[in-house]
Amino acid sequence: VHCDLYRLTKERDLTPLHVFEYLENPNMIVCVEWADRFPQLWKTYPRIALEFSFRNKNERRIKIRYFTGR
């Protein structure tokens, strides 16, 4: 499941998307784009965070981090 949170501004905006139902399902892989808009929501879930940045015109950097959740 892909969830793009770019246009969302309030936590309640996530409810109709069923994001937390997907996260609670062990058979689902959930990709959350713009998750940093609501950083406090993901702390209890194991996750892999990908951070993309531009180093220069020809070079990109991808930072990969794993979090176990609480």
UniProtKB/TrEMBL annotation:
Taxonomy of the source species: Bacteria, Candidatus Kerfeldiibacteriota
Superkingdom of the organism of origin: Bacteria
Database matches in Pfam families: TsaE
InterPro entries, alphabetized: P-loop_NTPase (IPR027417), T6A_TsaE (IPR003442)
Protein name: tRNA (Adenosine(37)-N6)-threonylcarbamoyltransferase complex ATPase subunit type 1 TsaE
Gene Ontology biological-process annotations: tRNA threonylcarbamoyladenosine modification
Signal peptide as annotated in the record: none
Species whose genome carries this gene: Candidatus Kerfeldbacteria bacterium CG08_land_8_20_14_0_20_42_7
